[in-house]
Queue: 4 jobs
Job 1
Amino acid sequence: MRNSVRIAVVGDAGVGKTSIVSSFAGGSFADKVESVLPPVELPAETSPDNVAIKIIDTPSGEDNALEVKNQIKEADAIVLVYSVDNDETLANVTQLWLPVINKLAPDTPILLVGNKVDMRSSSSTAQSTLRELITPILEEYKKVEICIECSARQMLNISEVFYFAHKAILHPVHPLMNVEDNELTPHCKAALKRIFMTCDKDKDGLLNDSELNAYQKYCYGNPLSEKELEGVKAILADNLGKDKGLSGERASITLDGFFFLSQHFVERGRPETIWMSLRKYGYDDSICLSDSAVSMDSLSGSGVRLALTQNGASFVKGVFARADQDRDGVLSTPELKELLSTCPHLPTRWTEELSFPLGLQHTSTELITADGLLSAMAELLSAAPIEGMKYLLYFGYDGKMEEAVTRVDSAYTAFSSGLPVVPARAVVLASRDDFKVVHKLAAALTCEGKWEKDDSIRHGVGLVSSKVGDTTASFALSLEVEMFDKAVQDPSLYQSGDIVMIPVACDNPMNVTVFKARTMNFMRGDVPPMFAVISKQKGEPDLVEQVVKFVKEKGIPHVLMSDANTREALAEAAALSVQKRQKKVEAPAGESKKSEFPTMMVVGIGAAVVAVGVAAFFALGGSSGSGSSGSSKGIGAMRK
């Protein structure tokens, strides 16, 4: 939560901007004031939220337009003043000021203030009701939080102007509620549902008196009295009926009832009550979990990878099981929607890179499996640890984060720690014509069909099992496709992988020559372990033999891959990412490391899978390859 706020007061000349600021700062009206006051600063201890306030008076006139625009851009809230005795100033609110503010500061809350109510004339349109005048403005400009009339001369509602401005910054209404349709926003509902589920300790879908009181005490510091509890339930019964807002013999509160109570506060001008609850559970101003909700010194830092512990893996499996209502082992569209109903959005890696939900499928029905969800969460924690921990919380995890995840440096350290799911990154360095081979690998790992239709997909993840020594391990194998030419220039694209693949087709001598050049090029650099996967399709036998002989000479493990054993080949690659690292750790001092970091080669035999060209070959041969208010009592403050 912020520790200071900046409020800019703007409007036409003569509407009384400076008089409003002067009356507020001085506590009385002054007949003569400066044309523009210097900034008014209030220390944090004067605010109920312990937040310092700076009020900026702005000048009028075209000569000062640039300064006013800069103040609008810098403000946390804008007080837009018009004069109720001058219809032209109200017209300028919609014709001039609001369009400018919407362009310069589209996310900044606005308070519309009608000054000089003491000078209102009977002929002025301001004599109409405030609602009639303002409703069209509220409907068009969603960031107008509130409209209020005041009089600087009579000191009427002057303190309220800045109270509501301060409130609009710290406790804005629009993230919570869509005013036009009178409904809680999807983000707000998702957050409140997660809070409800977290408080529902017995997992019966209801909040009993004990659970409700625990929520009340955690968020607001004090439990509900018996009278307050009865009052809350009476409101639900009167507005929703006993069957919708309350349930069971003990009249426990339903999720719909919890939503209603939250909306009830917002509608009655108490959004700070909901914001106190949201912030207590780690949400920021956009109603997404903040980094501080999950950041821990032992689990954060540059280059950190996280993996699920046994406790964390069991939790993810439990999340899937609860969502799989028909117990068929896959999630239908309604079940998937329910699973994600506590998330404000999906992780970027699941949408832009995995094309969620298709990227997590491995069934003929194209539905999410438990393995798909488990592997996606394991990969997310490995690639984006902070975001991964947030999604554990979104899915309802409420234990100690250190018990759900642990820090790992590589697939080898995850395996050697005995973790239930070993996240392993396989980087495929490909040219555009390599995608037929890449598709076979990706389709076997994730979803049949999707990869074949879209060459732009560069990422997939799936769960594979493989024996490493005497141990059978489950790998969340992440297949990351990078363009080979870029990787030559930027080794960081592959150096973070646990294993590297370089596809090549054996349908003509040029491809084999380029394949050998790539291999030699990368063996000179510091690259992760390698593994050759030779696709067993139509091709020239002599070229196949050349490839096999070459990889054997270089000490690169290989497998002949067919459509039937593609997943087995991927599993073997995952296992080798651990075994090669294991051999490096166990190797005696001074032993040659030349073959400890061989590259995984995906060798496609058949139709023209790679067409690198002579120019690209010479380029490769010359590269080194490295290069709120504290007075709130929470739901106990509910009134009918």
Note: The CA atoms of residues 245 and 474 lie 45 Å apart.
Job 2
Amino acid sequence: MGAESGLAERLLALGDARDEDEVDREQRRLEVAKDASDLVLQGRLSLLHLVAMKQTKHLLTSDSKLARTEGTLLLAEVVKGTLTVLTKHEVDHVLAFFCERLKDWHTLRATLSGCRALLGNTEGTGGSGGIKKMAAGSAGTLSVSEGTRLTRENAKLLARSLFEHVDVQSHSQPNRQLCFEIVDALLREPYDEAVLELAAAGPVASPPDSSGSRDEAGEDLLEVLVRFLDGEKDPRCLLLAFGSIERAVGLLRGKGGRELDLAVVRNAAALADVLSCYFPLSFSPPKDAAKTVTREDLLEALFSCYCSTPSLFPHLIQLLEDRFPSPKSETKVEGLRLLGYFLEKFAGDLRADYEEHDEKKQELEALVDQAWDLLRAQISQRQDTASTVADASCDVASRALEALGKLADLLGPCSLKVVDLAFEDAEVVAALAACASGPSGSEDPPHRPKSKTMAHCRALEVLSTVAGSSVLAFAEVLRRTREAVDVLQGLDREPILAVHFVFKMTLALGGLERDASTEGMEEFRVELPDLCRALLRLLPRVGMDAEDDFRTASECLGALENCCALRGDWIGKEVVEEVVMGLVEFSLSPGGAATEDHGVRVALVVSRVHRVHRDADLVDRVIRRTLEALAAGGEWEGDRALLMLAVIAEERCELSTDIAFKLTHRAVLDWGHGSGPCSRVTSSILTKIGTNIMPHLYKCTCDHRESGGTLKPVSKIVQNLIRLLERALAAGHGEEEGVLRNILCSLSYTTMLCTEEMRAEYAAEAVGLLASGEEALVVGEISTSRPAAAAAAAAAA
């Protein structure tokens, strides 16, 4: 009784604290709430007894707004602290009180805090993770404490009371945020099923109309949530509101049955009207929210809301039509990003409607026409004005092409609608005509403005993007293109345009090669060898001085790489070998058109071909030809050959050992064939081996060991390096000191790759050579200037 008596006095004092500072008042209330909670947890006081106490009743029913607020906040704090021990009867009683108290505007924040406490402790409230989680189908998770005692009927009572009595946008930010947090929690497990039952039973609220009377029809769940959102500006509340609407739509569509699914369709227009107010997104977070909500968080939550139902498709197209006249590239890029997400998520739903419902077929085709016009307008704009944003990802044309590919995939194999649109496009027709006309046409390439050439390239890229949407579309694009232009002749007449088109088409083919059953695909497969040979013939003829030609040569290499990376049933082994060896000759030819960058690109092609086809004989031929160029050519050819081998070794770890062995073997053979003891070839090889290949081989081997794999043994490399070390020491350490350093560096890496016994044996041999005669002086110099190079000697100790 003593504890209860002391608590009663302190409760009474809470209602008389008018003159206290708000902080002091809050501190006093929290202390009283903690003491009351402790009594409840200890079993010395029940929650209902606390509420029935005269002093508590006075606080909760007082005419004073301050007293009612303090009493309600106190009760909320006690509920929060004792939730794990409350009985069902206590929870029912307190919840009923809070739901009735929601009508009291003056104590709303305290009441909402109590409702929030009854829902239990939650983690990760807010959106579902947005578009990033869309592919996984995750709607986010909510952790509800074990002590939550709200039953299904409790949850329905709380939801209906909140929807019925609280006009969210009439209140301050803290109150609005509490409302959205409660809605967020109610739409997650374990309460979502209760809310779904409430929605299925009929209207969930009947808000006042303009005259203050009740609307008999009432509002369904989505209507209430849209009303809650309408006019919201605070980013914290928006993040919760967007997430709640996305989750509610998913719940109604996924578990609600046909009637609730129709409710989503019925509310789509109203939802779109409200969402459209937030795009483009204007973001100015309050100082206290700057670190908790970012613009990207909010944008993804908005996108997820738009991507919650396919019924928003016509409204999304209308939104983009309204916003794309904006001069801001950021708006266009984000709009195209949203369209791409939407098409990616709902292609199957929209396609099913197209195939199964004749009444929707015409509507969807009209929407595809609208989307096509939107995207073509963005693709056709001048490249130099396509983006005013520093971020390279803000590229309007490339985003539009991505979305175009998804639009083409929308109707899939059931329609060639988008292919028809492409070949009806005036710019596509003009680009194909330019490919066919060549130098003899009215637009001679040397005299055509660069902007016109770029426009033709973008139009041809539209064709290749559409072709990549399905096997049927690819075959049809090929067939209609053949009717307009002979691509092989186009490579001679108009290489810039033809090569660009071939590069993009072979890139698109990579995702479709598994299905070659269509007749048009079979024809293309037959034409591939001739196409590859034509591209090979074109490479040496392309000059490297002009920017367009450099891009053309790069795209030519890219097209050949795409072809060689196709599966074996698409392109024969002989053709792959012919292409690869042709590319090697192109990159090694003295005085040719190939640049150093092209040499690197050819090495990457070889690496990719090896990864796809695992043709060891072909790689061996490449290495032999490169070594021949290294030995027979001049300095330019030697540097290019070594660069290619180094790139191949770095790209394909399993080839590193063979390349290192063959290079060190070549260095042994060429020793003494130059003006001095060490030839230029040997010196170049040892530099590349010591600074690039062996360090990379060491790293690869360590990575393979950690993953349980093994690479080829390196004993032969060590033997070659020991021979080179003998010759370098015999030649003296004057002009050969740099060579000696590279040999020792390579030895240090190589011996670390051997077994322990072999390592000791090779290290001892190296130390014996270094310690013989006056060459011992060199060890000290090398150890001081480059400690890693003396690791071979240190390993013997």
Note: The first helix runs from residue 2 to 14.
Job 3
Amino acid sequence: MPFEEALDSLNLGGPITIRQVTSTDRKLEVRERMKERYSHKNYPDEFPFRCKCIVVFQKLDGIDVILFALYVYEHGLDNPAPNKRSVYVSYLDSVHFMRPRKMRTFIYHEILISYLDFVRSRGFSTAHIWACPPLKGDDYIFYAKPEDQKTPKDARLRQWYINMLVECQRRGIVGKMTNMYDLYFSNEKLDATAVPYFEGDYFPGEAENIIKDLEEGKGSKGSGGGKKKKKKKSSKSNKGSSNKGGDTSGGKGGTKVDADAGASGASVVSSASTTVASNGSSVKDAPVARDPVMVKLGEIIEPMKESFIVAYLNWEGASEEDQKVPKEIMEYREKAEKEKKEEANGVGVDANGDKASSSNKRDFEGNMIVSTKSRNLTGKSKAKIIDDDVEELDCEFFNNRQAFLNLCRGNHYQFDELRRSKHTSMMVLWHFHNRDAPKFVQQCASCSREILTGIRHHCPSCTDFDLCDECFKNPNTNRGACTHKLEPIKVEGETTSGNSQGDGSGGGGGSELTEAQRRERQRNIQLHIQLIEHASRCNSASCSSSNCAKMKSYLKHGSTCKLKASGGCKICKRIWTLLRIHAQHCRANLCPIPQCMAIRERIRQLKKQQQAMDDRRRMEMNRHYRMGMGNR
């Protein structure tokens, strides 16, 4: 779709706002069996990465409504192999309320294309995508989506990603496209340590199950025979590979996915029975010692290999092999470059294909109109690149998709209707600008109204029992089974959006800070965290640190306070924010800092919930392809 047509269509709906809401450093711990099996190869215990969430709003009827969310994981230059310089498109989700609805694919594709162009310019070399739709009843990011919104099948979702990557190829952002099987599992020299290890991906969970079966002896008897059968099978597939071509485009405007694994850093070894010895002589029927984990994973992944997409980005250090694209893409680039040169010389092409001067084309403000055909097709971005990794953007309920899903479920923030989506979006924006506020508001057990201000009367014995002040004073209020004495707790009002304390617990005012103020705030956060760590370990009554005694009193207050952060205590809110930042990076087995172990346990529980859903869709995908339903 041309950009002029897209802009005209958007004018009929409402303005679009794209916002990055979180950017935090995290670490992915390698699962136990994988770690133990390949410890002799110095396989990493963890992979650091940066998690980012991008959200799209559209103003509908005067209200900014959330329509799209994207989670990406960036494994940078500091990562060990095999994750080095790789990007994983983890989750994306949307609701169909965009106006006009036909613009959804165009805008979402443009966001992904622009993101890949951005990470390419920052030195990332590969992008990985697992095209797998959610199971029925599961939500990726948005809770309770519209009933009339269809979930795409495997083939359609895969083609959606392929179409986006083809446009990336046309613009010079992406080079070669392939898949995980052809890149890693068809190469007999590689073992499981060569496969990228991403959070939420198919490989970590399936590899763990296979290693478990091998250790328990379930696959030991068939492993040798499996290798021989695999040789014959792959030998046949090599003969017919020229006819298949790996075409996932469906024959219409698509691209052929390259099956050459040479760009992975190791040459492809044929699986035929003839091998080459180290001295160069041919040795027939020489046994090939393959990693049994790779053999079994390859057998499982091969029928669905097109769902595991790998795209090579045209970054500064990309090799010629990685920049190979199909012939039709090269022809498109050459044609676009030719038109660009003609436009630069003041000659364009009109709708009838005739040459026409474009030097006198101006908009209503008198500015020169630049045709959309002159967009960047050579891979060199004209936009100013801003380093968004200078400072962490921490948003507790958007740091991972499971936390946001739990927030929506706990507060009944739904997206099944437009009116509910508007309410949900307004509440999410309120949480953005009031990040200190309690995420889960107490409800009166009698009248079921949310207790937002005034006093709530809490029962310390019963689970989640509160009364508003009005119901508490009413002698006819039905308290059910609760007969205990209620404690009055003051509910503080909203914090102002301009709040921007130095400890980073402020709200929307942080976006108005200058660069120097941002650095100072980040420095203050680190100093406060260091002070908490010192005060937690210090046993001296006369410590030389002037702030040690003060921080100890704050920590003591946190253990005795009855309001807590959820009840509106400002001291508890600030201490809790610092403790949470510390816990996200702490790896000590027994940390003396208060609440650190509890916070880390909560983070682990969120990961388990997310991992359980990932395991369900992985097993469902295996089941469908095992039953021969890959083309559903």
Note: The first helix runs from residue 3 to 13.
Job 4
Amino acid sequence: VVYRVVVLAGGGRGLEQLHKHELGVHGEHFSAFSMCHGCFGGAVQDSILVQSLDGKLEVYEQGAHSFTHRLAGCLVPGPMVFVKEMDAVVMATSAGEVMAYKYHTLAMAAGDDGTADEAAGKAGAGDGGVGITVGKKAQPYWVRKIGETVLDMRVGRVVGPDGDSGILVLGERTMFTLRFSGVVVHQKRFSEDNPVSLGLYAPQPSSGPGGRPPKQNLLVGTLQKQLLVYQGWSLVWSAAMESVPIALAVAQFGDTRGLIVALDDEGTLTVNYLGTDPATSSVVPARAAEPDYEAIDAEHRRLLNIVREAQTSGGSAADVNQRLELRVTCPKLLDPPPATPEEVEAARELVEAHPTLAWSSQHAAGGSGLVSATARLFVKFIGSGEVRNVDVAVSAPDYVFVRENSFHIPVVRGGSATPLVFPIVLCATTALLPNELCATVTATYQTASGQPRTATAAFDVPLGLACHLEAPQANGGHGNFKLTLDTNRPPCQLVPLFEDMVAQLPDGEDAAQVIGSTANSVLCFRYHFLAAPDHFPGGEEPRSGEAVDATILVSKSSGRYRIQSSSLPAIYLICSELVKRLQARFGSDGGSDGGEAKGEDTFRVTYSDQLPFQDFFAVIDHHFDCRGGLLEANSLLNDRAHQYRVIEKRLLVRFKDKNPAPLAQLDEVLSETHQQIVELGHRVEEAQRRLKRAANALSCTTGLVLLLIQFCFALGEEDMEVLRTFLTPQVQDNVDQGWEEQVDAALTHLLKTSLAKTAKEASMLAQPLSMPRDTSKLKRHITIVCDRLAKGAMLASGGGGKK
């Protein structure tokens, strides 16, 4: 159907139907795919050529059907254009070819008149044929292979001021320029954009009927909903569109030139223009009056407040008042063991899928089951309306397995709606030593105005996910590492202090047997973690598969606490948790004894022994050796893979040769190399596991050293926050950088700034971050930092001053 735009009586615009052609002759099915029009065969008026999905061509002259011809070998049709200069139809095929057919060749191949082939087709159908009109085979004028699927074609002049007209062919990644003879004269590669449509327009009108056609600019539509404007082959403009344009043209409507007509894949036709809306009112010159400086100042302050609110809130006032609120409640006690056979079977299937999950038989309700705890996440939208497509992610410590660490919430309604509740099941594992209890929940969403937002909630997992109480060891073999903390408060009984851990024990005689009669002064915590052969450095560490414990002993006469264990990293979590609970118990009773003037008003923890630098450095060396082992294994794997590729190429060359040379045992070498690659792959995986375990031990030991530094040098929280950023307990190793060089560079910067003693130290140049040969420089910097902190240097003030 052909329409034209007409002006209606009321001043609006509408569509008027000019022609309507029924496709398909004598009721045959015809599914149109593409079309072109032009003065075929030198005619005065335009004709229409339509191509169907099965490669059938139908020509209509002045509304009447002229002839039909089917192209031989057409599987999938493509775009086509009519070239008036050569009186030919240029079309694309599914084989990545561009073919040109002379119009008279198509007309001759269709028969002397348009009905001869139809009669032959019907006769063939009556004799048992398929009834398809074929006619003579049309021979193409020329064929050009471009190697890409053609998306669009146009005829125009874009190559240079003296260039001739040509055929522009738009492929999936390349745009070709072909002469009318089929020769490729230019091509342009699209590296980032995915073009889908092409359009041409002349920025300057034609010079006249006999003049050369003007040079044209290019319009390219992309899958990224962009419109690219090219002048020659240079990009001069880019604009965003609301949909993907599959057809583009530039037209003049009324007196307005340069309007862009675009058609999308849903059939929506839009008329667009580049630029801004024209002014609807005339500009009136300002009166030459004295400026009102008070009004100018008030306006300036008002604009500053708007800018400040936008910078602090990052959105509109409505977005600020409407937010997503997260709240997590996590019980102190573990989940009871499964009660039904179905629950027991589900728990065992989960353990089979994740073999490192911890299984315990010391539940308060009796029985055995997974060591797990279920937290509850409350999601509520503050404000009116609702928020959609909320993505929630749960980040837990490495030794905790989260059954569902991410999930999607379709909609959260605001107002007085009840908060949505989601269970978060946390399970303990035996693979890594616990180093912290903090977990976070993060929700990402978009506001009504499209601004991205996040909401975060932090919570502590139960201590029971990390360890359980065990009967204290009678011998001293499990106390190779000991440290003593002094407090300015009387000794505290351990059972009330760790009542959540005591509540995990079974009632009755079993609990008394586990904690014993000295539970208020001695408690032994056994981790769910099972030690690996190479998890800890040194020769007096736990054996492979043996559980690791940590024991707290309280002095009877003074506020002195001793923490001992067979492993130095295992002391950290219990020591940190002990200090945290002591601070929570005694932190609010400051000044109860009236000792503010004597300095006894606040609860303090002190450490008077030497810092365990030797053991700390041994853990650092062990982690550094694991990194070196992984690099060596990766290097060997890379060498064997290169050797495998070389042998494979030689064998392929000999297999393809007509007179191949003897293999000379190359096949055996290839098989042996393959076996070595498999073994080295297992070696790399084992080295990665060793490095992960070493990083876990280093994280625990670094956290313990930081804790002892704080107690030894009486550092405040601000100083410790600064120190943790430089001597970080977060061990993250990657291919390019590791913990050693990162911490060494951070401590070097610290010694040049806050802890610098002389101007020479402050002027030291920073070294590039690369894996060092050894850890001697890092150890020296750690020792220097601790020495200067011992002499009273401050970190929070940043001036290297004394306390």
Note: Confidence is low (pLDDT under 50) at residues 112-134, 590-599.
